[in-house]
Write a structure and sequence with these properties.
alpha/beta; 6-stranded parallel sheet; 6-stranded mixed sheet; elongated
Length: 654
């Protein structure tokens, strides 16, 4: 009877998913039909969660990295008792439904992270496991394991082909993340056909070389073998990969072929699959009562959470400070005095590179915010991203705040996303701005999920100099501004850098802070009118100016120097700093008669919006840079006082 009930429930999951795909006439039925047994084992026999409280701190996390199989995840979520109605499954992939084509964090209860771009979920899970280790080491005490959960995932051939998964797997093995358990849906099929077309490596040996615990289950329908493998994995202190040999589209007429990967089965094919698997129910989206009663996780979930709540209450009696600190961390609440530590810089402190100022701000914040958790892609001395009074996070010190990511930019960003959705830490990552290109897929998902990840990008312009065009960003700043929901800040000096960090920590979504290598003067704030946000400002003027110089980052200092030179030419100019387009309110220089010159050491695309309908010109770089000292490159490419004065006189017909 137990076996019959297992099979009945597995088939319930299969056909809830297949019916959803068929109803939408869109989606991926192959993975749900083939991977339902392994998903069933995870969710029924191992996953610690409470559908009545999807945000329970100590729940296990489940990541469907192969997000195209979302119909299976929605079936699991519905059948286990989350607030996801059957009508939502029937509305799969439709406008305003809670069941979008790929899982979306914050949109559907029970979905832990947004997946679909292959490899991202794999790396997210590594970030979740790192957060679990960090928090457990920080807060657990003898007899009080208040942080003690696993990260489970289902990954596909496509996930493991992506370079981001290799980067993340390498780091996870290095760190001995034993709470990380991935089941590999090894069905040997991709969209193009057999994986033999392009993917013939020995995956198991690759992961063993990464220091992963690797097991194989040759029959993806044998739930007892899958169960045994997971139990074995839990005993190992390394991350685990369980290769489960499955048949894509199991039970359907074209099972085992690429044709069932991403196309609905069709009514005839779906009916044949149901017949082949002894599914004797004609009604679509049918859920046998036995399956529903068997698979619901509500009773066990509430029991497990109540047990944890009792433990946590006792923990609070013994360690009230730690309990309060942990709750605040999980809820994203900072100490009341955290802003008091933010440094203010005087003109005498300059000139100072904004990357150096950022390092000072970070270390000041680290004294009051003890869950800042981040690091650099092997560029820490250049990025100034190290918390000097904190330890390094490694397998000997899981309570270290500093992470050595190695040269793994894409995984680094995606791992930070996993940390952010896990909760309890404030993740930041750092590298050169030019390498944001390697991270773009993960940055976009930070913005899509609306999560607090802080991106520190140094070496932000051709001011990098001798390293040449390979390392000089041209289009990167503007490209980042194109991402909806990402706040991009390019501070002009040390104090704007302080403000940038403040905004980043108060921001609910991701923030990119773009910083210089070269030293910049510190601006006299008494001479400017600042916006309420403390970032954008306009120079105070007693009389109407002839011209506005609109700039950001290192070019604000250039604009100030040009302003001084223009005075000699009997031209008055007002300097405006606009380090963040997203925070800019557009006030203070709306007189249509005043020409505007915009100045940024990057592509000029987009800047013309600030002088639309009036005289104006953009000074920037619409070509690649060059190798020479930074000041020479700037001058040769038009970022000079001389060129600004020339263009100003042209606009004013002088």
């Amino acid at each position: 009877m137990s076996k019959d009930l297992d099979n009945l429930t597995i088939n319930t999951l299969r056909f809830l998913a297949a019916d959803a795909v068929q109803s939408a006439n869109s989606g991926h039925p192959g993975l749900p039909l083939g991977a339902a047994p392994m998903a069933y084992v995870i969710w029924k026999r191992h996953l610690k969660h409470n559908p009545k409280n999807p945000n329970w701190y100590d729940r296990d996390r489940f990541v469907l990295s192969a997000g195209h199989g979302s119909a299976l995840l929605y079936a699991l979520i519905h059948l286990s008792g989350y607030d996801l109605s059957l009508d939502e499954l029937k509305n799969f992939r439709q406008w305003d439904s809670k069941t979008p084509g790929h899982p979306e964090y914050g949109h559907t209860p029970g979905v832990e992270t947004t997946t679909g771009p292959l490899g991202q979920g794999f790396a997210n899970g590594v970030g979740m496991a790192m957060s679990e280790r960090f928090l457990s080491k920080k807060y657990n005490k003898s007899n009080f394991n208040v942080v003690d959960h696993h990260v489970y995932g289902i990954v596909s051939d496509g996930d493991l082909m992506e370079g981001i998964a290799s980067e993340a797997a390498s780091l996870a093995g290095h760190l001995n993340l034993g709470k990380l358990i991935y089941l590999y849906d090894d069905n040997s099929i991709t969209i193009d056909g057999s994986t033999d077309l392009a993917f013939t490596e020995d995956v198991g040996k690759r992961f063993e070389s990464y220091n992963w615990h690797v097991q194989s289950v040759d029959d993806g329908n044998n739930i007892d073998l899958i169960d045994m493998a997971i139990k074995t994995a839990k005993k190992d202190n390394r991350p685990s990969l369980i290769k489960v040999k499955t048949i894509i589209g199991f039970g359907s007429p074209n099972q085992g072929t690429s044709s069932v990967h991403g196309s609905p089965l069709g009514d005839e094919g779906l009916n044949q699959a149901k017949k082949n698997l002894d599914w004797d129910y004609n009604e679509k989206f049918y859920i046998p009562k036995e399956s529903k009663n068997h698979f619901t996780a509500i009773n066990n979930g509430e029991k497990n959470e109540n047990k944890w709540n009792q433990l946590f209450h006792q923990y609070g009696n013994e360690f009230p400070h730690l309990k309060n600190q942990y709750e605040n961390a999980m809820n994203g609440i900072f100490p009341n005095n955290w802003k008091d530590s933010l440094p203010n810089f005087n003109q005498a402190d300059g000139p100072l590179a904004t990357r150096s100022a950022s390092g000072k701000v970070l270390n000041s914040l680290a004294e009051s915010i003890d869950n800042l958790f981040g690091g650099s892609a092997d560029l820490e001395p250049s990025n100034n991203s190290y918390q000097k009074n904190k330890k390094v996070f490694n397998k000997q010190n899981f309570d270290g705040n500093n992470i050595h990511y190695g040269v793994r930019e894409h995984a680094m960003a995606s791992i930070a996303n996993g940390m952010a959705v896990h909760g309890g830490v404030v993740p930041y990552v750092a590298t050169f701005l030019i390498f944001s290109d390697y991270m773009r897929g993960a940055i976009r998902l930070s913005a899509l999920m609306g999560i607090k990840v802080i991106y520190i990008f140094t070496h932000d312009s051709i001011g990098v100099g001798e390293d040449g065009p390979t390392h000089q960003p041209i289009e990167q700043t503007m490209s980042l501004r194109l991402i909806p929901g990402l706040t991009v800040i390019r501070p002009a000096d040390a104090n704007e850098t302080t403000d940038a960090w403040k905004i980043a920590l108060e921001n609910d979504g991701p923030t990119a802070i773009l910083l210089t290598r070269q030293k910049l003067p510190i601006i006299n704030l008494d001479t400017v009118n600042r916006s309420k946000e403390g970032l954008n400002w306009i120079e105070k003027q007693e009389e109407r100016s002839d011209l506005i110089l609109l700039a950001c980052g290192s070019e604000v200092a250039l604009a100030i120097n040009a302003r001084d030179e223009l005075i000699k030419e009997k031209i008055t100019a007002q300097v405006v700093s606009i380090p963040s387009w997203e925070l800019f309110k557009g006030t203070g220089f709306d007189d249509n008669d005043i020409p505007i010159i915009t100045i940024e050491a990057g592509t000029t695309i987009g800047w013309s919006q600030f002088y639309s309908g009036k005289k104006g010109e953009s000074i920037g770089i619409d070509r690649f840079g060059a190798s020479a000292p930074g000041n020479i490159v700037m001058e040769k490419l038009g970022l000079s006082v001389k060129n600004i004065v020339k263009i100003a006189k042209k606009l004013l017909n002088k």
